[in-house]
UniProtKB/TrEMBL annotation:
Belongs to the BlaI transcriptional regulatory family. The keyword DNA-binding applies. Keywords: DNA-binding, Transcription, Transcription regulation. Gene3D superfamilies: 6.10.140.850, Winged helix-like DNA-binding domain superfamily/Winged helix DNA-binding domain. One of its GO terms (molecular function) is DNA binding. This is Transcriptional regulator. It comes from the Bacteria. GO terms for biological process: negative regulation of DNA-templated transcription. The keyword Ligase does not apply. Pfam families: Penicillinase_R.
Length: 120
């Protein structure tokens, strides 16, 4: 995702309901000077990429994020690993850069998955 797409997605993730183009445009007004048509194009592009879902509301579309940001982050990490060439080396380098807290979270997640495999 580009910076503008990310900025629009942030608005959708922060919203409790689906937003129209106008509502997204108004929310962005305080951060960036964007034309209404630019926001409309970005939302349409995000829908085509299946990053948003949209539904008709009269003449307008209402948009919501298709998945939580954490799921998107996981998908991006998996895609990066797929393109890394040496997947093992990429994982080793990634783990070498995480904080102690993040390493503990990774250990906990792996332990949980290991436990699920044994019981499942």
């Amino acid at each position: 995702m580009g910076d503008l797409e990310r900025l629009v997605m942030e608005q959708l993730w922060a919203a409790s309901t689906a937003l129209t183009v106008r509502e997204v445009h108004e929310r962005l007004a305080g951060t960036r000077e964007l034309a209404y048509t630019t926001v409309m194009t970005v939302l349409d592009r995000l829908a085509k990429k299946k990053l948003t879902e949209r539904e008709r509301d009269g003449k307008a579309w209402r948009y919501r994020a298709a998945a939580p940001r954490e799921e998107l982050a996981a998908d991006l990490m998996r895609d990066a690993l797929d393109r890394a060439g040496d997947r093992r080396e990429a994982l080793v380098r990634f783990v070498g850069q995480v904080s102690d807290e993040e390493a503990a979270l990774l250990r906990e997640a792996l332990s949980r998955l290991d436990g699920q495999e044994r019981t499942g």
